[in-house]
């Protein structure tokens, strides 16, 4: 085989290829990758045939090559798996942020339109309650209204908004209720 005798190489291949395949498959658990290791190991053996020491057995040398190829294959699989997972996570995050941003923007535009359609006093009470976080007492003091009047305005405003939103897409209604109520 050192001198390029192909029949000697075929004999070595036929006798050792199944062992190399079994070795590779034990670690890789993948038929195609294991076959690739066998091919690469024997290509490397053939390319380095002139450097072989006739006094040393061929099998340990071939398994050393195979071990290196298996480790390389595992490294590549691990790093590409990690890269794939990172990429998918990043794509998912960007997609969710973009989608959520669009939905929130649409929701806010629709909600603002619905709020503007409320009677003036209900608009003011709703905005002070939901956007500024004021209590019924604080709103009453600002607008010179009783606590019960503020509460009634807010209840009617919320009921009106819920009714308007119910006629729209359910997503907006749910998001609005979660965000504002």
Walk me through the structure.
There is one protein chain. It is built from 7 helices and no strands. The longest helix has 59 residues, at 58-116. It is rod-shaped and about 105 Å long. 83% of the residues lie in helices and 0% in strands. The mean pLDDT is 81. By secondary structure, it is mainly α. It has helices at 6-28, 31-47, 58-116, 120-131, 136-143, 147-166, 170-180. Helix 2 (31-47) packs across helix 3 (58-116).
Mean pLDDT across every amino acid position: 81
Radius of gyration equals 36 Å
Q: Largest sheet at a glance?
A: none
The structural class is mainly alpha
β-sheet strand percentage: under 5%
What spatial form do the alpha-carbon principal axes imply? rod-shaped
Distance between the termini: 83 Å
Helical content band: over 70%
Low-confidence stretches: none
Helical stretch count? Answer: 7
Succession of helices and strands: HHHHHHH
Overall number of strands? 0
Set out the fold topology.
Blueprint: H1 6-28, H2 31-47, H3 58-116, H4 120-131, H5 136-143, H6 147-166, H7 170-180
Helix pairs in contact: 1-2, 1-3, 2-3, 4-6, 5-6
């Amino acid at each position: 085989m050192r001198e390029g005798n192909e029949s000697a190489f075929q004999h070595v291949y036929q006798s050792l290829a199944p062992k190399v395949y079994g070795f590779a498959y034990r670690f890789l658990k993948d038929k195609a990758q294991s076959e690739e290791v066998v091919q690469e190991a024997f290509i490397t053996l053939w390319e380095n045939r002139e450097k072989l020491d006739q006094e040393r057995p061929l099998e340990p040398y071939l398994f050393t090559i195979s071990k290196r190829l298996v480790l390389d294959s595992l490294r590549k699989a691990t790093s590409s798996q990690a890269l794939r997972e990172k990429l998918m996570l990043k794509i998912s995050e960007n997609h969710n942020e973009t989608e959520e941003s669009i939905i929130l923007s649409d929701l806010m535009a629709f909600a603002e339109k619905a709020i503007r359609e409320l009677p003036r006093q209900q608009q003011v009470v709703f905005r002070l309650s939901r956007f500024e976080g004021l209590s019924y007492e604080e709103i009453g003091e600002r607008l010179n209204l009783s606590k019960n009047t503020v509460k009634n305005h807010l209840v009617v405003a919320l009921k009106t908004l819920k009714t308007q939103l119910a006629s729209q897409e359910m997503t907006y209604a749910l998001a609005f209720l979660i965000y504002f109520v």
